[in-house]
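Step 1: inspect the first sequence and its tokens.
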Amino acid sequence: MSQSVEQAAAKILARTEKIIRSTLLGSASRIIEDSPVDTGLLRSNWQATLDRGATGEVSNRGESAAKSEAASKVLAVKIGSVFYLTNNVFYAGIQELQNGMVRREMARLASKLGS
């Protein structure tokens, strides 16, 4: 009997992590896509990390590279991990205030969760 409980717990954990990963990847992709584009630097500077936020800027590597990095980090997420999506371009905060890329995504998640 304990083996079936352990198997059920492992399945629940695996499903939970899959839902978390899917949610994180969707949110990260939408935030990146919602970032306004002039030169592309803002979109390309979204940096995905685990357990510690990124510091510094990266070169204009393109939106697809930022999304690729997010997907790679999301695959490593486990229960207890902290996923960071950081943008250190000096004007990112101003763009967030004006356009609300992160704010809109958090509102969408809250609505989906019924909060």
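Step 2: inspect the second sequence and its tokens, then contrast the two.
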Amino acid sequence: LSLHDALPIFIVLDVRTLKEYTEGHIPNAISVPLETIENKAEAKLKNKDDLILVYCRSGRRSREAALKLIEKGYTNVIDFGGIKDWNGEVVK
């Protein structure tokens, strides 16, 4: 068992628009805009048991997206709110 095997897999999911994402996002975040989550979630988020940390700008869209993912059978979804509250690095 390597150290990598012991670390949980997690995905940071940005559900804002593509324009908002390109203006600045959390490092390594995957973009799946809320309006596309119904059709695109399974293609981008293969393992329904991965830990998925969902954010948007203020927290409204991330909550809606998290609920949609749970409805689709994702088991480990955490809505962590808005990027406006993020104090870490932002990638442009």
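Step 3: confirm your contrast with the notes below.
The chain has a mean pLDDT of 92. The CA atoms of residues 15 and 33 lie 4 Å apart.
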